[in-house]
Amino acid sequence: MAVKPIKLSFEGAFGAKLSARLDLPTGPVRAYALFAHCFTCSKDLTAARKIAQSLTMQGIGVLRFDFTGLGGSGGDFASTNFTSNLDDLRRAADFLRHEFAAPSLLIGHSLGGAAVLAVADSVPEAKAIATIGAPADIEHVTHNFADYLDDIERDGQAEVSLGGRPFVIKQQFVDDLRAHDVETSVGKLHKALLVMHAPMDQTVGIDNASRIFAAAKHPKSFVSLDSADHLLRDPDDAAYAADVISAWAKRYITTDEPAGDDNDIPDGAVVVRETGLGKFQSMVLAGHHRMLADEPESVGGFDSGPSPYDLLAAALGSCTVMTIRMYADLKQIPVDGIRVEVRHDKIHASDCMECGAEFAQKSGKIDRFERIITLHGDFTDDIREKLIVIANKCPVHRTLEAKSIIVTRDERSG
Fold first, then answer.
1. What is the dihedral of CA 269, 272, 273, 275, to 10 degrees?
2. What's the mean pLDDT when you consider all of the chain?
3. How do residues 204-237 score in pLDDT, each as one tens digit?
4. Confidence of residue 291 (pLDDT cuts 50, 70, 90)
5. What is the structure's pLDDT at 263?
6. Across 98-118, average pLDDT
7. Which of 89, 131, 159, 342 has the smallest count of CB within 10 Å of its CB?
8. CB 232: neighbour CB atoms within 10 A?
9. Taking a C-beta distance cutoff of 8 angstroms, is the pair 154, 86 a contact?
10. pLDDT at residue number 7
């Protein structure tokens, strides 16, 4: 499973802060990908999210960001052009390279597809490029505001409506588009290319895919997106594109499990290590299972995983469910479903109404776990009460109520 995207930012072409999100897998990051969104879109488009989620399942971290003046990024969109978009994209690759690792995979949607094709040579670590609905002719973008071209040429700029939102387009934007040749860039790629396009795309015609594919050298692949629209608004279409890119990319980018201590965890041990991201984020390794632990954003974390006390509550809740299930199955009690909600608080000992005499004599605060058990099934109240009693025999319950010994030693001490 993927973790919650981490909010990041870096400096764009014009010095503005660009808003970015980094999607990471719960296990080791085997490679990184960089995603470029469509014209006037944002990093949070359904297609971008689905692709990021699918790639994280393969151990690939994905950085997606908003170009200057779009989405959550700063700067003035009216001052941008395709050249500045390319610079934003190169800076995103540099950011990944310096802070994490250079991207092995570049993915672009629509104009973002043309952008990744244009910058591919300046990202030498990128081994594979995937495009979705990309134009073979950059000037094709002007079709989005064709009715305003005369006004732009006459007045130097015009306010146009794109996707129901107003944007100022300047003459320099139009002139800059004419200076780029996508097909020439494709012919110089020398990287694996996946071209994805919908035959019925009404925004960027399928002939664009044919031109890009013809200009490319092998290895190259084409996948039809069938009835999908240009923006992949249908979540199923976005998920399909994501799964195809994920499967295709395996062949070309490094996905070998990294060597190291993470692959040599003793039986019965749980290893927790820092990820190097943020203030608190840690990787939890138990056998072949991987997950993140973190703290909420309110205390300086990324909120990318459960907090330590969340994990403790999860241990109590999961142990309770398993204990009740084992007993119900043994006694052939028709329990159809078990749900356990666990809440943790630190309260003053004197405020604990349920605590026994041992706690009544204590000063200061104590840990209080409240466990709410919901049992579904057709059985008597007596049986229900017995199941609740059995819940108290959960091993984690007993551990929390007993006094445990924690022995700490420095690894160097042997």
1. 130
2. 87
3. 999 999 999 999 999 999 999 999 999 999 989 9
4. confident
5. 55
6. 94
7. 159
8. 27
9. no
10. 86
Q: 100 pLDDT exceeds 80?
A: yes
Contact in structure between 195 and 124 (CB atoms under 8 Å): no
Residue 266 has pLDDT above 80, yes or no: no
* Residue located via tokens 């609740």: 388
- What six digits make up the tokens of 87? 């610079």
Other Cβ atoms closer than 10 A to 282: 20
3-state secondary structure string across the chain? CECCCEEEEEECCCCCEEEEEEECECCCCCEEEEEECCCCCCCCCHHHHHHHHHHHCCCEEEEEECCCCCCCCCCCHHHCCHHHHHHHHHHHHHHHHHHCCCCCEEEEECHHHHHHHHHHHHCCCCCEEEEECCCCCHHHHHHHHHHHHHHHHHHCEEEEEECCEEEEEEHHHHHHHCCCCHHHHHHCCCCEEEEEECCCCCCCCCHHHHHHHHHCCCCEEEEECCCCCCCCCCHHHHHHHHHHHHHHHCCCCCCCCCCCHHHCCCCCCEEEEECCCCCCCEEEEECCEEEEECCCHHHCCCCCCCCHHHHHHHHHHHHHHHHHHHHHHHCCCCEEEEEEEEEEEEEEHHHCCCCCHHHHCCCCEEEEEEEEEEEEECCCHHHHHHHHHHHCCCHHHHHHHCCCCCCCCCHHHC
- Residue 358 pLDDT greater than 70, yes or no: no
225 neighbors 198 (Cβ within 8 angstroms)? yes
Look at residue 164 in the predicted model and tell me its pLDDT.
78
- The pLDDT value recorded for residue 359 is 56
